[in-house]
Write a structure and sequence with these properties.
The structure is a homodimer.
Chain A lengths: L14 E5 L3 H13 L4 E5 L2 H9 L5 E2 L11 E4 L3 H7 L9 E5 L5 H6 L7 E8 L20 E5 L8 H11 L3 E4 L2 H35 L4 H6 L7 H10 L1 H20 L4 H20 L3
Helix pairs in contact in A: 6-9
């Protein structure tokens, strides 16, 4: 685990409105409460989720709509990509504010953010935490510990917003990483979207053939490899639609390699090369987390 | 976790020779020492591994070759598939014994076992434990706890050998499961071999494109999905070569599904169906381990 970034003693924002208290939004709320108890945390969600979040102390104020409270200086949109895009033009503020999001793709959202009122500054965001199951019930304050949180500021238009957001996500234990929306979407197609689709396709393929009884004879390997297979469809439908070009190229790469391997199962060399490459990159991957 | 099978108080074998003290062979040794301290455990491996295994108490006797000790009533071949096939005709016994193995494919090994001397009874075996890294250093007594251990007895020719082996692997905490070699290889192509090749291909594809720096921006999903990517090439080269027909069909299935998904990224329905299928089978998979 890389050494954590220094956590600022004072909160970089006074009052946050979190729109969507699912796994990510709920974990942001819990984490802020732990790091900066003085920071005000308001939530927008269904009445049932708001009651749960208020009851557990994750938020201290339930907000009925996007008519943000007068003291808010940050809005975090924690919803699937299409909902974020639909929410953006509806955000009304009583004062200048910073708006960010946690959507898994960034190009479409950053484009849509141009429709925001002029007194709102938008910086795209994407925390790479994630858990096996979604929803506020699975939220936890350490969800982002040691994980990257990508920010995509829009040059001079973002002012000091990216700096303040970096301080915020450092406080949540994450590693802030600055990227352009293009670079984000291309990289995520490989390191996030391809693993998700591969895990889902593997689980569906194995389940459809082996059936429930056959799955009982599986080892820990299938279990680990398909941990992502219970990810929520609504989140990923939007990711696929808004990053289809980049994900398509990543899928092409994987399909080409699997096709090579299929043709070379009887010959040792292709399998040897596959395992050597995989072990080398796995070693690199572990360096980033150990 | 299913309730464990009853563990026999007396060891079902008096004295075992384990050929190959890697992750699996070493874990069998450690597990036997824990459950049945009176059972004799001999090992065959390189001098360095034997010294390590003797020093840690995993075995109580180092054997120089396959000239098995006079008291042995069980030989366990814990090596990659091709080595098992080469070892089989070389096993010499001073008395009738049972021979089993832990190879990841069964048809080729069971065929080769017909070359064993007449006083040796062979029953194929395959424990679905497995760990991220191989070698005696990673062996542990609970490697098989709650995991399936498939046995492929050869009808009446196996006599009571399968019953005694079932008692042994139950004692190691595993769930003995009887199957034909054909059924084993077809099922494993899906629940074990396909996940391994998919994890390796995913890691190689992502690493080759994202590079070491890009991997730093990955989330926990890639980490889990590629846990198998450091598996040893020698083990898997043999598995691929000896189960190429069944693995080829499994790869065809996965490639076809990935190709469908690639064509349907922009349309919600294909992605929705993929995630619904995957979540359903993931739920079934978890029933077997929770």
């Amino acid at each position: 685990m890389p050494s954590p970034a220094p956590v600022p003693a004072d909160p970089p924002f006074r009052s946050i409105v979190i729109v969507g208290l699912g796994l990510i939004g709920g974990s942001v709320a819990l984490s802020i409460r732990e790091r900066w108890p003085a920071m005000r945390v308001s939530g927008v969600d269904t009445p049932a989720v708001l009651a749960h979040a208020l009851g557990s102390g994750a938020i201290d104020r339930a907000v009925a709509s996007l008519e943000t409270p007068g003291d808010a200086d940050l809005v975090l949109l924690a919803a699937p990509v299409q909902q974020i895009i639909e929410l953006l033009p509806t955000i009304a503020a009583r004062q200048p504010m910073i708006v960010t999001d946690v959507g898994g793709t960034k190009r479409t959202i950053v484009d849509a953010a141009r429709a925001l009122p002029a007194d709102l500054t938008f910086v795209g965001g994407h925390p790479l935490g994630g858990g096996e199951r979604g929803g506020f019930a699975f939220a936890r304050p350490d969800l982002f510990a040691g994980r990257p949180w990508i920010l995509t500021p829009d040059g001079h238009r973002s002012g000091d917003a990216a700096t303040r957001l970096s301080a915020l996500v450092s406080g949540l234990g994450a590693r802030p990483t600055i990227m352009t929306p293009d670079a984000h979407d291309q990289l995520m197609a490989y390191v996030s979207h391809l693993p998700q689709l591969t895990a889902s396709a593997l689980m569906a393929t194995v389940g459809n053939r082996a059936g429930a009884e056959g799955l009982l004879a599986s080892g820990k390997g299938l279990l680990d490899t398909t941990r992502l297979a219970s990810s929520p469809a609504d989140v990923w439908r939007d990711v696929c639609a808004t990053n289809a070009d980049a994900i398509g190229l990543a899928l092409d790469d994987l399909i080409a390699l699997l096709t090579d391997v299929r043709a070379g199962l009887q010959r040792g060399e292709i399998v040897d090369t596959l395992f050597a490459d995989a072990a080398r990159w796995r070693g690199e991957l572990l360096k980033g987390v150990e």
